[in-house]
């Protein structure tokens, strides 16, 4: 088990998200981000499947067919679109992604930046979070609300094209002042 390495990785990731959230005024979310990663259900799996260059949840999923740690994590953290999946009020639609509150979309955006920085290290570029998102976006279907997906994609694209400083300034001075999207 790679306990120390996993602890360092989650601490580093959590620190980056906290720093980013603070820059846009989301202090509470910055402090509380991903606390469930320290629970035994998530932490022990992370230690067992730690590789250093990707989420241990992927390795657990490959080894067992599912990730108990991920199921635990996404059900407790509102910055994951998977938290917001429910049955539609229209019985014909089945299970759909609900529109996420704005502050959680911003935290999700920050989470994706921090994950890319954590796993890419010195090779990180502002385009990495967008590239990663676009690789999997086609598979999301009805699991993420179209408005949520649109805003996330817009922010990731702005980051890739205009950089972190300008994107964070837009989030703080314009987006979060609106309260809705």
Automatic annotation (TrEMBL):
Q: What is this protein called?
A: DUF5662 family protein
Species name: Dorea amylophila
Q: Please provide an example of a Pfam family that matches this protein in its UniProt record.
A: DUF5662
Please spell out the taxonomic lineage of the organism that makes this protein: Bacteria, Bacillati, Bacillota, Clostridia, Lachnospirales
Q: InterPro entries under this entry?
A: DUF5662
Q: Which domain of life is it from?
A: Bacteria
